[in-house]
Write a structure and sequence with these properties.
- With about 300 residues, this protein is of the alpha/beta class.
- It has two domains: about 110 residues, Rossmann fold (3-Layer(aba) Sandwich), CATH 3.40.50.720; about 180 residues, NAD(P)-binding Rossmann-like Domain (Rossmann fold), CATH 3.40.50.
- Helices cover about 30% and strands about 15% of the residues.
- A seven-stranded parallel sheet has the order 8-7-6-9-10-11-12, sandwiched between helices. Strands 2-1-3-4-5 form a five-stranded parallel sheet.
- Helix 1 packs parallel to helix 9 and helix 4 packs across helix 6.
- The radius of gyration is 21 Å and the shape is globular.
- The two termini are about 20 Å apart.
């Protein structure tokens, strides 16, 4: 049994059925446990709901956990390894979507798109205090620091440069590119915009301190919420230390109604959808189908992590 554990849109369902065949994949809503189908699952198509060691132990036929995306921090990798379950991801399939979302968040924060949209809809678009326009800006002339230089950051960098930004980056190792390599602490302290593109590991958890960022800077996070010290982010935004933040990911998802981020007008928020486009899903299902085929054929799997 192949199970997709997600809350798929009609387009997502259609993409799955067109590639795997109608009715081949069983859909289970991400809010529902997999207990009833666990004994029969052979391939799990995993999006965000954590794959725990307890679930893996309850699924004796499970042979493949296929991450729809890149980050595997939501999968109990040691348990998968101990139970001879392969774990694969799909680097590159969502890079275009994430790069475009990061750019859109930067621009929306700098141009205060949501603020002016709300005022215009309320009939107040032409009556805002003129000082509000002192708080908008352009990407051109700013230094943008890319934290992590994988596929999405590499797609984003030339676009930012074409818009007139100075692009710098940091990563686990330097790349053969013309952009300057800066250590993380310098990027945090000196960049006008800091955009996160690195995986979540024990080493990177909480690595970004917003209060250590340059006054008036912008933070963009399309990677993982736990990369940022979130309490300090709230403080940095509320105090005006940061101009704003564009956030697609959070420490706790979904956000609780009482989360202080929801009260901050300089925080632009999205529900972890940077990766989620029809184009991404089509590419992703192609990889997932190929790995399921390879599993049945006993061939080496693509992008195997465990």
């Amino acid at each position: 049994m192949i199970v997709l554990h997600a809350r798929p849109s009609p387009g997502f369902r259609a993409a799955v059925d067109s590639i795997f065949g109608s009715g081949v994949v069983t859909h289970v809503d991400e809010a529902e446990p997999l207990d009833s189908v666990a004994p029969d699952i052979t391939t799990l198509l995993h999006v965000l709901t954590p794959v725990t060691s307890e679930f893996i132990a309850s699924a004796p036929k499970l042979k493949l956990i296929q991450k729809i995306g890149v980050g595997v921090n939501t999968i109990a990798l040691d348990a998968a390894r101990d139970n001879d379950v392969a774990v694969c991801n799909m680097p590159g399939t969502n890079s275009q979507a994430v790069a475009e979302m990061a750019l859109s968040l930067m621009m929306a924060v700098l141009r205060r798109t949501c603020f002016f949209d709300a005022r215009t809809r309320g009939g107040e678009g032409w009556t805002a205090d003129p000082s509000e326009l002192d708080n908008v800006g352009e990407i051109a002339g700013r230094t943008v620091g890319l934290v992590g230089f994988g596929n999405s950051a590499q797609r984003l960098a030339p676009v930012l440069e074409a818009l007139g930004a100075k692009v710098v980056y940091t990563a686990r190792s330097q790349h053969d590119v013309h952009y300057e390599y800066w250590p993380l602490d310098r990027i945090v302290a000196e960049c006008d915009i800091v955009s996160l593109h690195m995986p979540l590991t024990e080493e990177t958890r909480g690595a970004i301190d917003p209060l250590a960022m340059k006054t008036g800077a912008v933070l963009v996070n399309t990677a993982r919420g736990e990369l940022v010290a979130e309490e300090r982010l709230v403080e940095a935004l509320a105090s005006g230390h940061l101009r704003g933040a564009g956030l697609d990911v959070f420490m706790n998802e979904p956000l609780a109604p009482s989360d202080p981020l929801l009260t901050l007008p300089n925080a632009l928020l999205a529900p972890h959808i940077a990766w989620l486009t029809p184009e991404t899903l089509s590419r992703s299902m192609g990889v997932a189908y190929e790995n399921h085929r390879r599993l049945l054929a006993g061939e080496p799997l693509l992008h195997q992590v465990v």
